[in-house]
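Appendix B, record 7
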Amino acid sequence: MGSIEDERSLVEEGLLQDERSNHCTGDGSVDFHGKPVLKHNTGNWRACPFILGNECCERLAYYGIATNLVTYLTSKLHEGNVSAARNVTTWQGTCYLTPLIGAVLADAYWGRYWTIALFSTIYFIGMCTLSLSASIPALQPPECVGSICPSATPIQYAVFFLGLYMIALGTGGIKPCVSSFGADQFDDTDPQERIKKGSFFNWFYFSINIGGLVSSSLIVWIQDNAGWGLGFGIPALFMALAIVSFFLGTPLYRFQKPGGSPITRMCQVVVASFRKRNLHVPEDSSLLYETPDKSSAIEGSRKLEHSDELTCLDKAAVVSDVESKTVCAKRYKQKRAS
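Structure tokens (predicted):
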């Protein structure tokens, strides 16, 4: 009796595993706890509203600051037009450089979810700091009296620029990760979900434009007519909503495990191609080196198909005589050990 029950349990367990393999994603996605996810209750469009809401609110907060920032610097901190324009362009340039930091941290260490979560918090703290600097009289220089406009003190500048550059750092972790994290919600191995991914990016850029439109019209009007404290406070509130929206979708998200920095792998390919510059690339691309497994050797990544672009880099995958002997020696040792 015991053997029959054991056999039956093994059969049921096998059927359960087959059912899971049919209903799990094929791109290596996992849930929040690192377990394989089922298609019917995670990802896809059910997870996208939280990501799109996060992006819309974050862009509204960013453009709510950036659109009218020169006016604030000239009218409230009493800077000249040249100095104000220089400070704004330097800050905006920093906002487009910090994504390099966020991208490396997300790909190599933390993953997209935790990178977005941490940098969104930094972003929100920066927004609150900026709102306080525009609301508390002690953090602003006195109003102009005639043609005399007192300059801001070092402390007033320090608080303002601290909040401003915390926003620049925060956007560096959000900008490179949100669109990719949204794409992670669709399984590339499923033809239907692959089509939906293209539609997601349409809605993603629509969300960006909606946030920019509201900022460039309503938020700017509030700043000019109702005060800068309120004009910066409302974007800070929307940033808080962005964080809440992002965390609410956690049970529905699909996650890709960090697989290492692609910058490092790109540099390795370039160096290997240079070292093998004298080798001949075979016309048949199937003769190039490839991992024998069905999945990629990089955890959390998928194999990429060979393309006809940048064929000069194919030399990195050409197996030299020395490498061929090394591979044969390793296989021989493995057989001896087994």
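Remarks on this record: The two ends are 37 Å apart (CA to CA). Residues 10-21 have pLDDT under 50 and may be disordered.
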